[in-house]
Amino acid sequence: MNEAPLLRVERLSRHFPARSLLGWRIGDVRALDGVSFEVAPGETLGIVGESGCGKSTLGKTLAGIHRPDAGRIVFEGEDITGRSASERGAVAPKLQYCYQDPGNSLDPRWTIRRSLNEPLIVHTALGAGDRDARIRDILQQVGLPPTHLDLYPHELSGGQQRRIGLARILTLHPRLVILDEPTSGLDVSVQAAVLKLLRRLQQAFSLTYLFISHDLSVVRMMCDRVAVMYLGRIVEIASTEALFAGAKHPYTQSLLSAIPAIGGRRVTDTFALAGEPPDPVQLPSGCRFRTRCPRAAAMCAQTDPALRPIAGGQSAACLFA
User: Fold this and answer.
1) If both were cysteines, with which of 39, 95, 102, 240 could 165 make a disulfide (CB 3.0 to 4.6 Å apart)?
2) Burial (CB count <10 Å: 0-12, 13-18, 19+), residue 308
3) What are 8's strand-pairing partners?
4) Which candidate, 37, 74, 58, 62, places its Cα nearest to that of 309?
5) How many beta carbons lie within 10 A of that of residue 177, not counting itself?
């Protein structure tokens, strides 16, 4: 990266207690376990992986919804590790989290006008007239008419709720937006409209995106780089072009092999992802992917591979990469 990173994450960890049916603590779920990466200004970094790999936990920990157990979060050169959303002060408006289901993040008793006013009241000193002007401008930017201001969340479609969720964030003029599954549950045509809107807003507001998704085709279209997560760790990170042209980690190759293509031809037919991830409370020794990996050897059970640079600017956590 030529510029100083907007966001730097260093060995970030977040563990949740696992309990038995009787309530006894039987271990920890390592939702995040030593995650490190950087995001440059104006970049879109995709975070992909199976359900339960830690994608959403990563986004919520960066946003201050979860407190990390270890590691550092440095945003715009300032260490914000461990601060809750209410403790971040001037930083909070600049780093915003967009929920996977924006309908559930909007108070059903409030009109859209009141929901959009709330962040401006909390984080700015704008008067009522200036707040109304900014809200109307942002609403126009996300493609909704001002008549929607007096509607309630249940009166909007899923796509319209996504736009309101984005408008609520953009009223604060953030620098980094964490998008958690921004197209999940939407029809294909609505997905296309939302993705087009995200691109336009990124240019209009000079935004940086952390794009969390399980849809590899969307990630390929939207992201500059991609980080692949498995059981709380990043196992591969590379530019989007390099990753899809030649993934190095067997898990990434398995994910790409599952992408359907015209004529039945897949991106790679070398690997097939078999079985379920292991119990996150009792992780296998060595490489966490070895119980599902077609390349697994005896040494994989003894050595836990670290994420390391390899040819072409890619990094992978595999002994054979």
Assistant:
1) 102
2) exposed
3) 38, 74
4) 37
5) 25
DSSP SS3 for 13:
strand
Question: Which band of pLDDT confidence, cut at 50, 70 and 90, is reported for residue 186?
Answer: confident
Instruction: For 231-298, list the strands marked E by DSSP.
Output: 233-239
Task: Report CA-CA distances (Å) from 216 to 50, 182, 189, 226, 314.
Answer: 11, 13, 17, 10, 18
- Are 321 and 248 in contact, with CB atoms under 8 Å apart? yes
Alpha helical stretches, state H, 48-99: 55-62
Lookup result for tokens 């930083």: 91
Name the amino acid, one letter, at 31. A
Q: Read off the pLDDT of each residue in 163-180 and give the average, rounded to a whole number.
A: 93
Q: Tell me the whole-structure pTM to 2 decimals.
A: 0.90
Beta pairing, strands 208-212 & 176-180: parallel
Enter the tokens of residue 155: 């009166």
Cα torsion through 152, 156, 162, 166, rounded to 10: -40
Torsion 237-88-197-108 (CA) sign? positive
The 7-19 sheet, strands edge to edge: 25-39, 7-19, 70-75, 78-79
Q: How far apart are CA 95 and CA 283, in angstroms?
A: 33
Give tens-digit pLDDT for 196-235: 999 999 999 999 999 999 889 999 999 999 999 999 999 9
Spatial distance between the Cα atoms of 165 and 108, rounded to a whole number of angstroms = 13
Residue indicated by tokens 């989007």: 240
Is residue 33 within 8 Å of residue 9, measured between CB atoms? Answer: no
Q: E-assigned strands of the chain? A: 7-19, 25-39, 44-48, 70-75, 78-79, 95-98, 176-180, 208-212, 225-230, 233-239, 308-309, 315-316
Single-letter amino acid code for the residue at 9: V
Query: Tens digit of pLDDT for each residue in 116-152?
Result: 999 999 888 999 999 999 999 999 999 999 999 999 9
Taking alpha carbons only, the member of 276, 270, 274 closest to residue 256 is: 270
| C-alpha dihedral (76, 78, 80, 86), degrees to nearest 10 | -80
